[in-house]
Amino acid sequence: MKHITITTGSSTSKLRFALLMSLLLCAVSQQSARSQAAWSQDAAIPSIALGHCGSFRHCPPPEPQIEPNAGKWKTWLLDDVRQVRPPGPPSRAISEQEIRVLKRLSFQRDAAALDLINYWDAGSPSLRWNEFAVDQVIRNNLVGPPAARVISSLHVAIYDAMVAAWDSKYLYCRPRPSDFNRSLTTVIPNPRSPSYPSEHAVAAGAASAVLAYFFPQQAAFFNAKAEEAGQSRLLAGVQYPSDVQAGLELGRAVAQLVIARAQADGSDAVFTGTIPQGACNWKGVNPILPLAGTWKTWALTSGSQFRPGPPPACDSAQMATELAEVKNFPRSIPAPPASFNTTRLAFFWNGVVGSLKPWNDLTTQKISEYRLDANPPRAARVYALVSIAYYDSLIAVYDAKYAYWAIRPNQLDPTITTLFPNPNHPSYPSAHASLSSGQAEVLAYLFPRDAEFIRNIAMESANSRIWAGIHYRSDLDAGFAMSKQVAGLIIERAKSDGSQ
Q: What is the pLDDT of residues 40-62, one digit of tens each?
């Protein structure tokens, strides 16, 4: 063995020696930190790696891992993440074979492959699946509880699957392929989490199965997109084929739980009751989803948990005041300059697109603005919490609507002209006020610096129903009050879900 002899006779040599030793200590401490983070589930970065190394240089700390404790977060359907935990990753020898597969794929990185990688890397693993779901909801003209049922089921599946994936990631701590073999090049930086299972494949497995259940005619499309999502990670060089396979299987296992719940949530019940015929009752036939208030909820014990008291009597002084507000609000087509903006906003918030897309887009925007798109479990948590507020708020409002069967403004006073037809269900409370308030309160909790802005949007959405001539002020007030209670329940759960 050869030995290196260092002479430290002069003061200059001593200084060089001290500097060399400082740099050596720095490198050793960082390697120790990386090794512990890579191979120990509950590793803590040594304090030396976070401060000065020796007395001359400040060592930059190793990059922190993404949510190493997310595998312990509270889930919505999974009783225990171990029930879907995959077996350990393949052996070193098989990993080396997989590296050779990835190297061959690296020669296929043409313009189309790079575009595919960038498409799936544009946001969190939830992003594209959320877009596919919204597109299908709009194409199939789903509005109200059916739309919220799809969106919430999707995001609960992705969230629970992502928590389970993070359990496995930090249990097995498999290095990323290019960390295992430095000769492998990647298109994008390695995500700061262990490789197994693939987070994109987990989201793809969960989402594709759930969406195929709700939209079976598009099952082939969703399955193809799931394979595409996994393939993008292989082309990028950031995960092994076995990571992708394990991720798809884990996601699909969680999806089956969500699908089983959807099959038994009461949404297929048939209304056989009668429509009340009192003077203050809604007028019409074939009301929309009179049993939606009985559907199974996520956070509420039932749709009636926060049912408000009855609306003002239609012959009361309060109702006369509220009716006058609706009747006297300026609305006409074409709209004059004075009422153009409120007329425009009434149409903006109406219908399938208006009741879903603005809040969904705002959620995605905030995830991006707060840099959560690089944090798959936290992005999935945001989508899940907001979509549950969307769904539970609507179930609660439909319970109240069909508890009271309240008359619409232009049914009470036929001289009132609306901007568009009434939705075919009772007036009290307002569904727009409810779904907007529920989502707004959860978003305000998650993104507090934007709370005032978010709540102002909810108020605009609710007021648009008076501007359109289809709701009373008390409808809005009841919707807001009820959904703030719904959101409060969801927020209290979020505060103790382990993500803090």
A: 322 333 232 333 333 333 334 46
Inform me whether the pLDDT recorded for 19 exceeds 80.
no
**CB contact at 8 A, 382 and 459:** no
Estimate the crossing angle of helix 473-495 against helix 431-446, to 10 degrees.
Answer: 30
CA dist., res. 399 & res. 292, Å (int): 7
The label of the residue with tokens 């309060």 reads 318
Check if the beta carbon of residue 372 is closer than 8 Å to that of residue 379.
yes
What is the rounded distance in angstroms from the CA atom of residue 243 to the CA atom of residue 228? 14
From the CB of residue 269, how many other CB atoms can be counted at a distance below 10 Å? 13
Domain 70-263 has CATH 1.10.606.20: yes
Residue extent(s) of CATH 1.10.606.20 domains in the chain: 70-263, 292-495
- Residue 286 φ/ψ region, left for φ over 0, alpha for ψ in the -120 to 50 degree band, beta for the rest: left
With H, G, I as helix, E, B as strand and everything else as coil, classify residue 269.
coil
- Identify whether the C-beta of residue 156 lies closer than 8 Å to the C-beta of residue 24: no
For the segment 169-206, what is each residue's pLDDT rounded down to a tens digit?
Answer: 999 999 999 999 999 999 999 999 999 999 999 999 99
Residues with Cβ within 8 Å of residue 396, at least 6 apart in sequence: 293, 297, 300, 303, 304, 305, 306, 307, 434, 482, 483, 486
9-42 exposure pattern, b = at least 16 Cβ within 10 A, e = fewer: eeeeeeeeeeeeebeebbeebbebbbebbbeeee
pLDDT at 152 over 50: yes
Asked if 326 and 409 touch (Cβ cutoff 8 Å), the reply is: yes
Cα distances (angstroms) measured from residue 452 to each of 200, 357, 442, 449, 485: 34, 20, 12, 8, 18
Who contacts 317 (Cβ-Cβ below 8 Å, separation ≥6)? none
Which element (helix H / strand E) includes 112? helix 111-120
Could you give the CA distance from residue 405 to residue 399 in angstroms, rounded to a whole number? 10
- What span, in angstroms and rounded, lies between the C-alpha atoms of 32 and 17? 22
Q: What percent of the chain has pLDDT over 90?
A: 85
b/e per residue 285-297 (b: at least 16 CB within 10 A): eebbbbbbbbbbb
CB atoms within 10 A of CB 111: 7
In this structure, which topology does domain 292-495 adopt according to CATH? Vanadium-containing Chloroperoxidase; domain 2 (1.10.606)
User: Could you give the CA distance from residue 361 to residue 325 in angstroms, rounded to a whole number?
Assistant: 32
* Predicted structure pTM score: 0.88
308, 303, 282: which is closest to 293 by C-alpha?
Answer: 303
